[in-house]
């Protein structure tokens, strides 16, 4: 059994502690009421425990992989930084929107990094994490397919470096969770050529490889993208329709080679969330019933 938590372990432990304290505070009135009240308290507590356990993302890997001394560091931490401003909606990439090309390139890079962990950080005027660092590439693909430009993200307000701080902390966290694994950054954007706002800078240590991909057909934002590439210490690649995605910029074999025993990690979080959902649905149904009874009683008293 291995764990790949969606939050840093210290944060997850703090959340679990707070929830435990809150549940203990609510135990006394439930115990005093006894019977069904205590049973419902137990069900809700069990649901919260299951959700916290699911957030720890338990899973299993093949025995040989778990036993291998090198398996713990096999596979890179791959960060996709995606421009979701209205620039990515421009239809000048071989007759299709730039965002469609970005999605295709991300899919190709997922295939090119078997055994890796992936994160998706998007930005326009502000950054956001669309997918936390995870080795569950199968579940990531629908998220990638759903990537589209943010509505109302005006081109003159785009900050091409908006994701710098979020990326820095994600890289730091990855280094703590997976010491020895390479950190690769792939940036996808147009360089915010129409922006009139100050641009952020990527001041990040611990990046071993990656690329900055540019999708502007006119090349108006290429210089800004080259600057970002210099800040990250990776090459700049001007993308063209039909061009194969370069994947050979990594500096370590662990960036592209899966563990000897295989690429798969069996995830168990969905079983835990399924059980928690069942308990929460029962509690919701009981709460609705209690509310209806209370309203009915109130009407009888008033009449």
Automatic annotation (TrEMBL):
<keyword id="KW-0812">Transmembrane</keyword>
<keyword id="KW-1133">Transmembrane helix</keyword>
<feature type="transmembrane region" description="Helical">
    <location>
        <begin position="37"/>
        <end position="56"/>
    </location>
</feature>
<dbReference type="InterPro" id="IPR036465">
    <property type="entry name" value="vWFA_dom_sf"/>
</dbReference>
<feature type="transmembrane region" description="Helical">
    <location>
        <begin position="6"/>
        <end position="25"/>
    </location>
</feature>
<feature type="transmembrane region" description="Helical">
    <location>
        <begin position="268"/>
        <end position="286"/>
    </location>
</feature>
<keyword id="KW-0472">Membrane</keyword>
<protein>
    <submittedName>
        <fullName>VWA domain-containing protein</fullName>
    </submittedName>
</protein>
């Amino acid at each position: 059994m291995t764990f790949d938590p969606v939050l840093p372990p210290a944060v997850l432990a703090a959340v679990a502690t707070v929830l435990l304290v809150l549940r203990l505070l609510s135990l006394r009135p439930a115990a005093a009421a006894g019977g069904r009240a205590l049973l419902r308290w137990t069900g809700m507590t069990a649901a919260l425990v299951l959700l916290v356990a699911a957030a720890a993302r338990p899973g299993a890997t093949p025995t040989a992989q778990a036993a291998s001394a090198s398996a713990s560091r096999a596979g890179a931490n791959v960060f996709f930084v995606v421009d979701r401003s209205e620039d990515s909606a421009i239809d000048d990439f071989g007759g299709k929107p730039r965002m469609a090309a970005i999605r295709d390139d991300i899919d190709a890079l997922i295939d090119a990094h078997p055994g890796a962990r992936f994160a998706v950080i998007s930005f326009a005027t502000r950054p956001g994490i669309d997918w936390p660092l995870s080795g569950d590439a199968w579940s990531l693909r629908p998220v990638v397919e759903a990537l589209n430009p943010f509505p109302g993200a005006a081109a003159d307000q785009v900050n091409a470096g908006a994701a710098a701080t979020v990326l820095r902390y994600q890289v730091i966290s990855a280094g703590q969770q997976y010491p020895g694994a390479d950190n690769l950054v792939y940036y996808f954007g147009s360089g915010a050529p129409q922006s009139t706002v100050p641009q952020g800078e990527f001041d990040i240590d611990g990046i071993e490889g990656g690329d900055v991909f540019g999708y502007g057909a006119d090349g108006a934002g290429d210089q800004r993208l080259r600057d970002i590439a210099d800040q990250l210490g990776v090459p700049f690649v001007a993308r063209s329709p039909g061009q194969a995605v370069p994947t050979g910029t990594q500096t370590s074999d662990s960036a592209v080679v899966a563990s000897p025993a295989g690429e798969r990690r069996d995830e168990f979080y969905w079983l835990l969330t399924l059980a928690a959902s069942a308990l929460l649905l029962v509690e919701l149904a009981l709460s609705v019933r209690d509310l209806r009874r209370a309203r009915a009683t109130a009407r009888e008293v008033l009449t």
